[in-house]
Amino acid sequence: MYEELKKEIVDVLKFMEIKGLNHGRSGNVSVRIKGVDHVLITPSGLPKASLSTEDIVVVSMSGEVIEGSRKPTVELPLHTAIYASYNYFNAVIHAHPIYVTALAIAREPLPPVIEEAVLYVGGEVRVAEYAPFGSRELAENVVKALEGRSAAILPNHGVVTCGKNLEEALEVLVLVERLAQSYILSKMLGKITKPPDEVIKYLSELFRRRVLSLE
Ligand SMILES: [Zn+2]
To answer: Model pTM?
Structure first.
């Protein structure tokens, strides 16, 4: 089932490795099929950039395996909790890119310092409250941090990005990592400025309309 979407997931995993957005066995990617509520998700453990379409598991929203011989990622509850809470997201990427992870270690949110980012993320990228990886508590905390946003930082861990499709979730991941890099560099320069509040408000309103129109 869903051979084309599985191929898309496999390609995204390779892209993430090449671009330094993820590495080795870490990270996981899923796509939700609306209507039937099937979720295509990466397996636990294996090096992600060398996965093939047969390694992608199809699960139900309650987590039971429908197709595939692999064990789904330990972060499955994180993915299904996001889909259950936010009807407008159909793709979730979790990764450990260097710069966002640096903010995750500092437990520092990523402020909306670049106008473009507000359009794609909705505002400040919040840091979820801490909970161990793979836990239901982490899933709940991330869902909270994602309210009105398409990305959230997982403390001492990494990042989650979401979209109406995989392409959009990947776009958000690339943007958030670049934004984190620029933000950290600007902090080293010692001066942080933000776009005017009314610009942030206008752009976040555009984001909300674009996201909510998908419901
Ligand atoms: Zn992780």
So the answer is: 0.95
Cα 95 to averaged position of ligand 1 atoms, centre (Å): 6
SS3 (DSSP) at 7: helix
pLDDT tens by residue, 32-84:
999 898 999 999 989 999 999 999 999 999 999 999 999 999 999 999 999 99
- State which fold the 3-212 domain adopts: L-fuculose-1-phosphate Aldolase (3.40.225)
Catalytic residue among 8, 17, 75, 168: 75
Ligand 1 mean position to 93 CA, how many Å?
10
- How far is residue 109's CA from residue 88's CA, in Å, rounded to a whole number? 23
What residue ranges in the chain does DSSP mark as E strands?
28-33, 38-41, 57-60, 65-67, 91-95, 151-154, 158-163
Centre of ligand 1 to C-alpha 132, Å, is 10
